[in-house]
């Protein structure tokens, strides 16, 4: 089974801090994604990457950046955390040519105080 | 870009009854339609998917239908059980591209 591992399950940060959320997958997938999940708003795409050093903005990129220096690792960065970024963050990976959808990580629940 | 709408947002059914969730999509080029189930506190997991060259697909108690002309697809769960209680998400994309998700349906199966 594909494993997508997110480094933290719960995280509490202060307003203004720089926050790093890490995601690692072990199946050599080309595509990796960061979603944000809020009650009533479903899954919203923040950023995605089709390959190392490539990144594309999703639907809600403001206040976030990403880094993909290695194929297996995709990092989400909150440059200056704000309370409205309190949310559940889900990483996912998928093969470029397959029709197998995505495999999600367990999520990181981030609270910004 | 693609836009996916999902209805209803909540669905309460009696155990043993059927549940139907409907989604519409906007991009006629989309050709891959997965469904995810997310149990409370857990990650979304793929439960069934369908490609645009197929009209219906079944896997035990769940089935998905696709109407390309109308650009809508549906999830059908028969003989619902308490363990079917979860949030279900539909999604659409071109294979290999990013998925666009619907807003989710919270399904509650009452014993």
Plain-language structure description:
- The complex is a heterodimer of chains A (113) and B (111).
- Chain A has 113 residues and is mostly beta strands.
- Helices cover 0% and strands 53% of the residues of chain A.
- In chain A, strand 9 and strand 10 form a beta hairpin.
- Chain A is globular.
- In chain B, strand 9 and strand 10 form a beta hairpin.
- Chain B starts with a strand and ends with a strand.
- At the A-B interface, strand 4, strand 5 and strand 10 of A face strand 4, strand 5 and strand 10 of B.
List keywords for this structure.
heterodimer, A: 113 residues, 0% helix, globular, B: 111 residues, mainly beta, 6-stranded mixed beta sheet, 5-stranded antiparallel beta sheet, 11 strands
The share of residues in helices of chain A is: under 10%
Distance between the termini of chain A: 36 Å
Major β-sheet annotation of chain B: 6 strands, mixed
Largest interface: A-B, 26 and 23 residues
Give the H and E element order of chain A.
EEEEEEEEEEE
**Average pLDDT metric of chain A:** 91
SSE arrangement:
The complex is a heterodimer of chains A (113) and B (111).
Chain A: E1 4-6, E2 10-13, E3 19-25, E4 31-38, E5 42-49, E6 56-57, E7 64-70, E8 73-78, E9 87-94, E10 103-104, E11 108-112
Parallel strand pairs in A: 2-11
Antiparallel strand pairs in A: 1-3, 3-8, 4-5, 4-9, 5-6, 7-8, 9-10, 9-11
Chain B: E1 4-7, E2 10-14, E3 19-25, E4 32-38, E5 45-51, E6 56-59, E7 62-67, E8 72-77, E9 86-92, E10 100-101, E11 105-110
Parallel strand pairs in B: 2-11
Antiparallel strand pairs in B: 1-3, 3-8, 4-5, 4-9, 6-7, 7-8, 9-10, 9-11
Short description:
The complex is a heterodimer of chains A (113) and B (111). By secondary structure, chain A is an all-beta fold. Chain A has strands at residues 4-6, 10-13, 19-25, 31-38, 42-49, 56-57, 64-70, 73-78, 87-94, 103-104, 108-112.
């Amino acid at each position: 089974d594909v494993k997508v591992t997110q480094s933290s399950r719960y995280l509490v940060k202060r307003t203004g801090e720089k926050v790093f959320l890490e995601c690692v997958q072990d199946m050599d997938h080309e595509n990796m994604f960061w979603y944000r999940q809020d009650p009533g708003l479903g899954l919203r795409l923040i950023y995605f990457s089709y390959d190392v050093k490539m990144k594309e903005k999703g639907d809600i990129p403001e206040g976030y950046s990403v880094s993909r220096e290695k194929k297996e690792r995709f990092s989400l960065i909150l440059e200056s955390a704000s309370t409205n970024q309190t949310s559940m963050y889900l990483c996912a990976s998928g093969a470029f040519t397959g029709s197998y959808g995505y495999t999600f990580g367990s999520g990181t629940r981030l609270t910004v105080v | 870009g693609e836009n996916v709408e999902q209805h209803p947002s909540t669905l309460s059914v009696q155990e043993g009854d059927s549940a139907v969730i409907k989604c519409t999509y906007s991009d006629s080029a989309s050709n891959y339609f997965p469904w995810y189930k997310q149990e409370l506190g857990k990650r979304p997991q793929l439960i069934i998917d369908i490609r645009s060259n197929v009209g219906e697909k079944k896997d035990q108690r769940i089935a998905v239908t696709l109407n390309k002309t109308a650009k809508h697809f549906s999830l059908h769960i028969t003989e619902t059980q308490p363990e079917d209680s979860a949030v279900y998400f539909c999604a659409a994309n071109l294979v290999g591209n990013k998925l666009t998700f619907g807003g989710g349906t919270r399904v509650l199966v009452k014993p």
